[in-house]
Each structure stands twice: as C-alpha cells, then as structure tokens.
Amino acid sequence: MSIKYTIDGVEVVAEPSDTILTSATRAGIEIPTLCFDARTAIYGACGVCLVEVEGVPKLLRACSARPQEGYVVHLHTPRVDRARKTAFELLLSDHTGDCRGPCKLNCPAMTDCQKYVNEIREGRYKDAVSTVYEAFPLPASIGRVCPHPCEDACRRKMVEEPISIAFLKAFAADKIEADGNPYVVQCEPDTGKRVAIIGGGPAGLTAAYFLRRFGHAVTIFDQQPKMGGMLRYGIPEYRLPKAVLDREVKIIADAGVQMVNGVKLGRDIQFDALRDEYDAVLLALGAWKSMPMRVPGEDLEGVHGGIDFLERLGLGERPSIGKRVAVCGGGNTAMDCCRTAVRLGAEEVYVVYRRTRAEMPAADIEIEEAEEEGVTFKFLTNPIEFYGEGGHVTGMKLQVMELGEPDASGRRRPVPVEGVTEDIAIDDVLMAIGQGADCADAVDANLLTQRGTIACDELTFRTSIDNVFAAGDVTNRGAGIAIQAIAEAQKAALCINNYLEGDEVRAHIPYFVTQEKTPEDFEDRPKQSREKMPGLTPEERRDNFEPIYFGFTEEQALREASRCLECGCHDYYDCRLIRFANRFDVHPERFAGEKHDRDDVPVVRDIIVHDPDKCVLCGLCYRICDQEVGKTYLGLYNRGFSTVVNPMVPDEARSFCASCLKCVEACPTGAMKSIPATSRVTCIV
C-alpha cells in the first residue's frame, strides 16, 4: 500500500520499501547527500541528509528513515540547516586539495585559466574562447595587455617558469577569428527591461555583454568617438592593435547591444533623465583624469598628464614632444608613456621613480622592453620642482630618496636623503603617478566619495540611489588594472539582473578548498622552458607603432599549453561536496586543526589514482565495487581518523578496472581519478 506524505508542502507518494530519500528523489526533490547511491545498501556515513519531521523530536537521516502516512517533512528549518552546515564544515576541515587552480583564484574575474589552457592543448580553440567568454568578452584584447596576475600565481614557476596564460588566451581568440569561426553571443529571450550603461571601456562593455546575455535591452553611452575606453585611448597601438579591439566590440554589438558614442554625461545626456527612462543605470565612467604631483612648476607648458598624452595619441593625434622627456611614475601607464615618447622621436627618455625597481608596479616585461628601447630609469628619485624659461619647462629638480619602513601597501616607504638632490634638463614631462575619476559635474553629488569616486556597496554594486549601480575604475578605491574593472562589471551585471528580476541583489563570493604547494612537490616534473613570443627586435620597434608581438604559432601554443600542471580538481563541476558547501555558506575554519597528510598511502598508479586527502570516507567506491560490480578490489585500511581507502587490486584485475571505473564515477568529491591509457605505468605501488 502506498504512503502519502509531504516534503516542504509537496505531496510525495512512497512505497513501503522506500526511505524518505528514495521517495523524494523519485519525486524530483533533492535532499543533500554524499554517501547514498541507489545501487548500494544504506550506509549513513556523511550525515548531511538530515530532515525535520513535525512531531518527531530528533532530526532523521533521510537515507535510512522510512516515511509514514501523513508525515510533514521539512528540508530547510534552522535546525536542519545548522546540522548540515556543521556536517559539511567537519568534512571540509580535513579535506585537502585544490578546487580550482591558483591561476583562476588569482584572476580578479575568476577566469577558468586551467580549463581554457587545457582546451588549447587539446586543439579545441573554440571551446577555449567560450570558456573565457564565461568570464568576460574581450579575450584577444585582454590577452595582449593584462599584467596577468594569474601567471604570478602559476605553480609552474616552481618547476621553471609560469605558463604564458595571457598570450594563450589571445592566441585562441585570434585563431578562431582567422579560421572564420568567430565567437557568437547566445542571449536569453528578451525580458522587456532596459539598462543604460555610461562608459564604453572594459567595465561597460563587460557589463553590457552579460546583461544582454540575460535578455535585457542594453544601451552604452560613451563620450569618445569609439568604444573601448582605456583599452583604445590609454594603451598604444604597439601593445593593442585597435583592429583587434574593434572586432571584439563588434561581437558585443552584434549581440544586440546599442552603442552611442560622442555623448557625455552631464553635457549631452542628463543623469536624472536616464534614471527615469531606464529600469537600471550602470555608471562605468572610468578614471580619465591624470593625478597632479603638487610640486612647483607643474603648470608650466610642457608638463602633461600621462593619460591626457595617451588619449591624444589614441584619438589619432601625434603629440609634439621635445628631445628630452621625463616620465614620472612606475606603473604600466608610465611604461606606455616612456615607450611612446621613444617612438615619437625623443632622444633621451627618463623614468623617474621614487622607489627601486623591485617595488615598481609595472610588469617586468614592460620594464625590460623599455630598457631595450633606450629608456633610462632613475630609481630612488622624486620630483620636487619643475622650472623653465619663457613659460616652458626646461628642467626638473629631483630629491634623492632611500627606502625606510614598509607602508600600508607592504612596500618600503621612500624617504628623502637630507640635502641630496639632482637636476636634469628636459623638454617635456609626462606625469603618470595615477589617475582619478572626473564625474563631479555628471552625477548627483551625494553619490561621490571624498576622492571623487562613486560610492557603491562592494557586494551589490548599488549606489545610494535605488536603480543606479557603479563598477570599474570610477568606484570606491579608484583606478586599477583592466581585469579588475572587468571583474567588478561582471558581478555588477549579475546584481543588476537580480535587481530587475526582483531577487536578492548581492554578488556571491564562492568557497573553495585550497592547498599550499612547494617546489619539492614538483621535483619529478621534467623542465620545459616557457615559449618565447616571436616579435620585433628593439631596433625594429623604436620608431614605429607596429605591434611588437606576432603571436604564438599553433605549434608553440600547443607546447606551451602542455606545460600546465592541472592544479585544480578534475571533478570540480560534478563535485557534490563543493556544491553543497557553497549552498550552506560553510566556514570550516571553525574546526581548524591539524590535517592528515596521507601522501604515502598506496594507490593504484596505472589505472586509478585515489587521493585520500580529498576522501570523505563515504564508502561509495568500495561499496559500488562490491555490491554493484561484485568485486572486492577496494577496501578500508586502518581505523578511526586514520582510515583510508586501500586498493587491493591484483595484477590480473588491471584490464577489468580500466574498463569499469564505476568507483570513479560514484565518487562525490574527486578523490578517485582514472589515469588516461597514454599516461599509465605498469605497477601498483
């Protein structure tokens, strides 16, 4: 006779042999579990399938509890959620591994670098580009100019050198374009909602792309003649050919994003009018104002803002500069300025930086290439005066510095060497010490911080005005690298979508399991040098703006991608543990203590790898082997907290295991992994 009861108000029909879990599963209701599989007997190991039944004083394990007529079952009461959360936190407190590779975790936009690098290795270039587009829509452009924090975290540098992750991204995007197979944006059905985005730089373009994918009508307004923002008007042609940017902007436009150029907020369009006309407004104006140095003589002719200088270049002008040029600053904008000055004919180009090279925020390759092109670096010097004749700058006085104690950034603070200065003769100065937002005349003054940026919540990206959001260089702390602006826009677009759909407006910060590695962990890896990007010699690039890099050949890209150590978990997308962990907002540090390190436990090396540090002892692997397959090739070893799954596979079982792999399929955490035939050895250790 059938049994009728309810789960969270839904009527469920169960047979006498059913448990709450089996009948719920058949009814399409998910109850979290790690150790249950219909092919095996009830085990009850994980403790996460708890439910609360009205009238029953204790929580029940759904995998073993039998439903009774009229039961009223609840899956999400405070008691249930607390108990499940604690169960997951206890499991994770002794769970060691890498959910995602450190490359992805160090990318502000959380681009799945490991995934697209491996897709390139397999020759699946369209898939690789699609993987990048899941994070942002400018792979060819960002692949050329990003300072690649992903590579800073790449563990391959513990073997020799990090993988060329950024250039591989650009390679894949260039390859599918050259093959006549460009990426096409897939959009949800139109929602009837309209969003205005102010600013067509990397943040604005990224937000527009995601919002259009969600099905909203999106219009970008930008003050410049073309879209691209700092990518177009702040980065010289030799680093980012504008034809590359054009094709990526076109992909976004072809998805249905409306683009309106040559209009400025506060002049051609008004803030209040946009708020009334559109369901949501995103402010992504960027940071277009060069920061002043506040030293005497700064108002002399020939003293320019670095961003202003590069913007004129991007607008098609050829700024006139003298033979001797000094650039103040140590970031990538300073490198763009000094290298541009070389290309415009300056004979002596100095970079004045108040710290040492070790503290320079500019990318090492930018510094090296500037030196190759003849730029002179004057470290530990700081301008204290510009002076001139006839109103034009002719020289600058530099204060000689030394490094003192670390400041808030962690870098040692430069302090003056009392009474020691230096003078250099110059014709022009480019100030590249930073840039700021310039929106005081464009938006409501109540939105602005003391720094002139727009104040917004860091998890919702909402301003103090209900339907107004902000992202990118214009927000809170101000300007950063392009991928940081992109990351903000990515999250802001999700929050705007949630707002338009009436959901919680909040960017979720996912939980990941991570582990520390040392060079000793990779001592067995053969060394394979990083591929050298082909390009122009220093002599060939000094007097023109031709792209300095040619891009990887396909053979180079395949070799470079093959260097990936595959740090992230192979089973991440199917891992039930991490999926439920994020659902219940776990904090396993509450149960912090010494973790097991079971590297010396035997594993089947030529068929299946079992990682005991990822194992949660759900028992599915050996229960499937025994109860479903009818074999006993896996079992438990030791007792208590030292228990591990131990392979007991005889030599004659290798071929059977290689074709079965049901234990691997059943594992809920990625602790079991099959070894490709090409990588197998012939022993069990």
Q: Tell me the CATH architecture of the largest domain.
A: 3-Layer(bba) Sandwich
Q: Mind telling me the CATH class of the largest domain?
A: Alpha Beta
Q: How far from one another are the termini?
A: 53 Å
* Overall residue-averaged pLDDT value: 92
How many individual β-strands?
24
Specify the structural class: alpha/beta
* Neighbour order of strands in the largest sheet: 2-1-5-3-4
Rounded to an integer in angstroms, the radius of gyration calculated over CA atoms is 30 Å
Largest sheet: 5 strands, mixed
The fraction of residues in strands falls at 15-25%
Q: Any idea of the CATH topology of the largest domain?
A: FAD/NAD(P)-binding domain
How many helices does DSSP assign? 22
Q: What is the number of independent domains?
A: 5
User: What is the share of helical residues?
Assistant: 25-40%
Question: What general form does the structure show?
Answer: globular
User: Would you identify the regions where 5 or more consecutive residues have pLDDT less than 50?
Assistant: 680-685
Name the CATH homologous superfamily of the largest domain: FAD/NAD(P)-binding domain
3D structure, described in words:
By secondary structure, the protein is α/β, with parallel strands linked by helices. It has five domains: 3-92, Ubiquitin-like (UB roll) (Roll), CATH 3.10.20; 108-184 and 513-561, no CATH class; 194-288 and 436-501, FAD/NAD(P)-binding domain; 292-434, 3-Layer(bba) Sandwich (FAD/NAD(P)-binding domain), CATH 3.50.50.60; 597-679, Alpha-Beta Plaits (2-Layer Sandwich). Helix content is 29%, strand content 17%. The strands form seven sheets. Strands 2-1-5-3-4 form a five-stranded mixed sheet, sandwiched between helices. The protein has a five-stranded parallel sheet with strand order 8-7-6-9-20, sandwiched between helices. Strands 11-18-12-13-14 form a five-stranded parallel sheet. Helix 9 packs parallel to helix 16 (482-501).
